[in-house]
Amino acid sequence: MSYVNVVLGDNFASVVSDTQITKSDGTVSEKEMKKFLVTDQKVLIATTGNADVAKRLFDFFEEHQDLQFSAVRMQVAAILEQLQGVTDEDGGKISQKVIVAGFEDGTCTATAFIVDSYKALQVINYGPWNVIHLTPEDYSFDIAEYFGRLRTDKLSDVVAHQEKALFRVSRHSQQVNNTINKEVMLDV
C-alpha cells in the first residue's frame, strides 16, 4: 500500500488515494483496493502499509460504525500497539501508517499513527488546514512544499490539487498507480 493524502479544512476532510497494493518484494498484488473508510459517525480512517493490517482495521470499523472520533482513535492505537515485535509472513517488519480524522467541537482534526515492528508507536496530532500525506518508500517527493503553494480554501481546488499530487507521485513510484479513490467528509 502506498499513497494517501488528507487535507483538513475548517469543516471538511478530503482524502485521495491510489488503489494499488505492492508487496515488499515489489510485485503488485492488487490494483483496486480502497485505502480509506468513512464511518456513519463521520470518522475517516485511511492507511498505508501492510494490506492484512488494513483489512483488519477496515473490517473492525465496518462492524463498529457507531464509534465516535475519540473512540476510533483509541481503538486504532490499541490495534497498532499489538504489532510491536510482529513480522509479516516473510519475516519482514510490519510498517503501518494510519490517519484518523473527524470533527471535535466543530473543528476538523486528525491523528496520524505510525508503527514499525521494531519501534514504538508514534502519534502526531493535526488541526485544520494541515495536509497529511502517506507516501511510498521509493519516492521522496516534497509534498509539503507542493501543497504549500495551494492558496485557496475552495474545496474543489483542494481536491484537484490532491489529484494532481497523486498523478505526480504515480509517475515516479512503482508502488503507486494513477487510479484515484476520493471522498470529502463534511461537518454539516
UniProtKB/TrEMBL annotation:
This is Uncharacterized protein. InterPro entries: Ntn_hydrolases_N. It comes from the Bacteria.
